[in-house]
Design a protein that fits this description.
With about 240 residues, chain A is α/β, with parallel strands linked by helices. Chain A is built from ten helices and ten strands. Chain A is globular, with a radius of gyration of 18 Å. In chain A, about 45% of the residues are buried. Chain B has one domain: Orthogonal Bundle (ABC transporter involved in vitamin B12 uptake, BtuC), CATH 1.10.3470. The chains are: A alpha/beta (about 240), B mainly alpha (about 325).
């Protein structure tokens, strides 16, 4: 399988706290990777580093063989990396359809000035594709948490990515919503998308991932299939202290 | 054909406003027109501030820097005393574009780098630049006239009616230009930046590119307002150009009219100008500003969207009633 994303020796310190410590992992084309770890393990920090929100103190991140180091966040998105946020961040004054449309707007002033709403059909299809058909005209305050997570997913899909990093995508959802979302992820995987999924809901995670990496104190402690890491002593200790 | 009809339809309220403004000189006295001229300039300044601060959320306290710089450059180059040295007096059709270019160039040199920092830091840096420029204009007295500024500057046109036509024409040209930009995807992205800049960046858009464009438009607008205002007044001084009340009027006009709307600041500019002028005989000095501050506070408290928000809500209510539900074009 082709290596899509590779993280080597990634380190990030916040003052005296080492949030990510010499982290190494990779994601291959066609797979869904689970990024696991107890609270404060550094999962979201790793996402922020991959997106370019933080500059690493050491290490290298490459995507499709290209070093991401010198690239800004928007340039990484153009390369094909997208993310969702742990706490959904919709544009509070915009209805869903307009929120999604931002992700399809060209990054060019001249092209932006030429027209409006030209890409609305495309946006509608993306919204419908994640199950938001009858909620496209709604504002964020009218949506459930499940719907807001769908909006997050739709926004990332709208940037036409290859890799999407989903941060706590199952958190706060009902079993029914989790099942729907799982089906959706599997469908998108078949369509060629690659995911890194962070979740505390291990049962939900087990249903979608091909492989998992577990981190603690920002450092990789285990790697393998879900069954392998579920029986790993270090993982059990990290999660249950035993 | 349909697109052409849609375009004409979307301009219908502009046509109404232009017709109303064209009729005014025939039915009101010159004193009323003079207030309209000041309102037109305030509307231009407020739209300029709105393009940058109202749309992107980067609150500028230094906007008079851009206005004053444009005005001063044009004034110094066109003043009968001449640019010191070597006593060059240039015609207005040369000095005014140079003034506008100075606003854009000076702004890009000082302000634009500050847009890499956010929130109060940007606001404070912009305020610092304003204060620095004000001191420079006083210190460089040989060229700028120092504290007293420059007087007896050449006028573009004379008389209330002529100046009314000129200022109204500029105001509409600026307003329609900015309105078209605001209606495009550029306006859409700028509003999104105001709401959550990181998320816009995560959508694959260079927020700096869009902010820079908004800033340049804002600086051009401020420059246009600055040079025309200076040559309407026939004078410029640090006390007038860089006064904090002038800055306050610009911000209050935008907030009362409706931030991030372009149209709102026109209402706001007219409201503030007419309110302060109409209460001139009733209230003195500070009391007048106190009164208008209270009115502005009341508007923003009860309707944070300002005048534009009120008009927009009423129009949306009528449209929803007529169509029987919320439509896509009502929420954009």
């Amino acid at each position: 399988m082709t290596r899509l994303l590779e993280v080597k020796g990634l380190t990030k310190r916040f003052g005296g706290v080492v949030a990510v410590n010499d982290l190494n992992f990779h994601v291959d084309d066609g797979e869904i990777l689970g990024l696991m770890g107890p609270n404060g393990a550094g999962k979201t920090t790793a996402f922020n580093l991959i997106m370019g929100d933080y500059k690493p103190d050491a290490g290298q991140i490459s995507f499709k063989g290209q070093d991401l180091g010198p690239l800004q966040t928007y340039e990484r998105v153009k390369l094909g990396i997208a993310r969702t946020y742990q706490i959904p961040r919709p544009y509070h004054d915009l209805p869903v359809i307009e929120d999604l449309r931002i992700s399809t707007v060209p990054d060019s002033i001249t092209r932006c000035l030429r027209g409006k709403k030209r890409n609305i059909e495309e946006v509608e299809q993306i919204g419908i594709g994640v199950g938001l058909k009858d909620r496209l005209m709604k504002y964020p305050h009218e949506l459930s948490l499940g719907d807001l997570r769908r909006v997050e997913l739709a926004k990332s899909i709208a940037t036409d990515p290859k890799l999407i990093m989903l941060d706590e995508i199952f958190a706060g959802l009902t079993v029914h919503e989790i099942n729907e979302l799982t089906e959706l992820l599997m469908e998108k995987k078949k369509a060629g998308l690659v995911f890194i999924v962070v979740s505390h809901d291990l049962k939900a995670l087990a249903a979608v991932i091909d492989r998992a990496v577990v981190i603690q104190f920002g450092h990789l402690i285990a790697e393998g299939t879900y069954e392998e890491i579920a029986h790993d002593k270090k993982v059990k200790k990290a999660y249950f202290g035993m | 054909m349909v697109n052409w009809i849609t375009s004409v339809k979307s301009f219908r309220w502009w046509l109404v406003a232009i017709v109303v403004m064209m009729v005014l000189p025939f039915i009101v006295p010159p004193s009323f027109l003079r207030i309209c001229i000041m309102a037109n300039f305030m509307a231009i300044f407020a739209m300029s501030w709105d393009m940058m601060s109202g749309y992107t959320g980067y609150v500028s306290f230094g906007h008079p820097f851009l206005i004053g710089l444009a005005g001063y450059v044009s004034a110094m180059l066109s003043h009968q005393g001449g640019f010191q040295p070597p006593h060059i007096v240039l015609p207005l059709y040369v000095t005014m574009p140079l003034g506008i270019a100075a606003a854009v160039g000076g702004g890009m040199l000082f302000f634009l780098p500050s847009m890499r920092v956010r929130g109060p830091y940007f606001s404070l840096i912009s305020l610092a630049f304003l204060m620095i420029l004000s001191r420079i204009m006083i210190a460089a007295g040989a060229m700028t006239g120092g504290d007293r500024g420059l007087t007896s500057l050449p006028y573009l046109v004379t008389g209330a009616v002529n100046n009314y036509w000129l200022s109204t024409g500029i105001m509409f040209a600026v307003a329609i230009g900015l309105w078209l930009v605001a209606r495009s995807d550029v306006g859409h992205v700028l509003k999104a930046i105001r709401m959550d800049e990181d998320v816009v960046e995560s959508s694959g858009l260079s927020t700096y590119r869009f902010k820079r464009f908004a800033f340049i438009l804002s600086a051009i607008t401020a420059g246009i307002g600055g040079v025309f205002y200076t040559h309407y007044m026939g004078s410029i001084s640090p006390a007038g150009a860089f006064d904090y009340i002038f800055l306050l009027n610009i911000i209050v006009s935008t907030v009362v009219g409706g931030m991030g709307t372009i149209l709102g600041p026109i209402f706001g500019g007219y409201f503030i100008t007419f309110f302060t002028e109409s209460t001139r005989t009733l209230l003195e000095g500070a009391w007048r500003f106190m009164a208008y501050s209270l009115v502005a506070l009341a508007i923003v408290y009860f309707r944070p969207g300002g005048f534009y928000g009120i008009v927009h809500d009423i129009a949306a209510w009528f449209r929803a009633k007529r169509r029987g539900g919320l439509q896509y074009d009502q929420v954009t």
